[in-house]
Amino acid sequence: xxxxxxxxxxxxxxxxxxxxxxxxxxxxxxxxxxxxxxxxxxxxxxxxxxxxxxxxxxxxxxxxxxxxxxxxxxxxxxxxxxxxxxxxxxxxxxxxxxxxxxxxxxxxxxxxxxxxxxxxxxxxxxxxxxxxxxxxxxxxxxxxxxxxxxxxxxxxxxxxxxxxxxxxxxxxxxxxxxxxxxxxxxxxxxxxxxxxxxxxxxxxxxxxxxxxxxxxxxxxx
Length: 221
Fold this sequence. Notes:
Structural class: mainly alpha
Shape: globular
Radius of gyration: 20 Å
Number of helices: 9
Number of strands: 0
Distance between the termini: 46 Å
Order of helices and strands: HHHHHHHHH
């Protein structure tokens, strides 16, 4: 039980470090404490930006011939986050950020019911589709895990050497998580990461729809 709890803590800590922290601090450096973005928007967009940032960091390491290890991955993420935090503090002294709350999540009772129904149906339909098959579906996760394991074992990004299955950055997020949390790739953690990305993608599309269509009923539809 102690090992299980320890592994769970490592997993969640690595998720925060790799898939949330760098994106959050970048948003902080750009927008500061302004309310141009809603708090939920900042939370969700932090994940997408973090994926891009970690990709950039590891590709920079690869170009500079720096071994990709647990220490270097953590150092790259923390250094980027600290630089973003410093930029935020510098800008805070020079700029008065706007304080206009967009209020895009102000729903009526009926609209809120429709939103929850929409999210429920999204996962119910997917769960029904996957009930008689393996999970995850429609993805070559084994292929991705092969290159992830290669990256973890060789401490660098694969160059593929002209192979036709070249996919840029497919292993960087999984590899960074594996290096930091030390969990095996033959476990549930890769599927949980995919599920988290799927959930955040749905919420991102919903937020963008709310931004595009100011009328709540149209956005929900």
